Amino acid sequence: MDGILLVDKPAGWTSHDVVAKVRSILKKNTGQKVKVGHTGTLDPFATGLLVLVTGSYTKRASEYSKLDKTYEAEISLGANSSTGDTEGEIVAVSAEKPSQEAIEAVFGTFLGDIEQSPHKYSAIKINGQRAYKLAREGKTVEIEPRKVKVYSLDLVNYSYPKLKITTEVSSGTYIRSLAEDIGEKLATSAYLSELRRTRVGKFDIKDAKRLDEIK
User: Fold this and answer.
1) Which of 97, 109, 137, 204 has the smallest C-beta neighbourhood within 10 Å, fewest atoms?
2) CA neighbours within 13 Å on the CB side: how many for 66?
3) pLDDT digits over 58-110, tens only?
4) Do 96 and 175 share a domain, yes or no?
5) Which residues does residue 192 pair with via DSSP β-bridges, in sequence order?
6) Which is the catalytic residue, given 43, 68, 85, 154?
7) Strand, helix or coil at 162?
8) Are residues 24 and 73 in the same domain?
9) Active site residue 181
């Protein structure tokens, strides 16, 4: 069982949950223990493409962890979330309703190479510990900005307060942070209310299997 397995992660599952479930399915159907790993996490509330590696391919996980990614996302304007997404405490901040023209103009400012500060509730490690774990413990989380690249950022639909977008970004780009930065530039606030990953490098969600389809 050596290779790559594309999985469509459901909402509410961690990436580790998916790995454990696939490992269990493969053991049940082959009668053998099969090594399974992932090549890049998705937040529990997010859905979409997880690229898993099995057997000897687990040693090659790093080959697939730095690939460009494409997302479909919904951004909610006018409120902040403590975690930057639907899982945090959400507080209304502004009733300002930006025009579609203003939104598209702001989108243009994010194209290309930008500096981005990963969210304190991200899975990035600080001195060996996940940032979100430190944040939940009430500890101060300081993360240095990093250079990332936004190849495209397109408005799909806008009906205040919801913005639906598609975006292609380099590895290491945090869509939660992008949503918050967009809200700040629009002189309102914003958080990420939906997220779905549709591509990782050459891998596409249309080729992925749901967990109940994996044999």
Assistant:
1) 137
2) 4
3) 999 999 999 999 999 999 999 999 888 988 899 999 998 999 999 999 999 99
4) yes
5) 75, 85
6) 43
7) strand
8) no
9) no
- Residue 35's identity, in one-letter code, is K
Q: What is the CATH number of the domain that holds 34?
A: 3.30.2350.10
Q: How many residues does the chain have?
A: 215
Give the pLDDT of residue 121.
Answer: 66
List pLDDT tens digits, range 17-66: 999 999 999 999 888 999 999 998 888 889 999 999 999 999 999 999 99
Q: Tokens in use for 12?
A: 């509410």
Residue 167 belongs to what domain range? 69-200
Whole-model pTM: value is: 0.91
Same domain? For 81 and 181 the reply is yes
From 161, 200, 167, 172, select the one nearest 4 (Cα to Cα): 200
Q: Is the N-terminal amide bond of 161 cis, ω within 30° of 0?
A: yes
Cβ atoms of 75 and 182 within 8 Å: the answer is: yes
Bridge partners of residue 121, in order along the sequence? none
Count of domains in the chain? 2
186 shares a domain with 205: no
DSSP code for 39: S
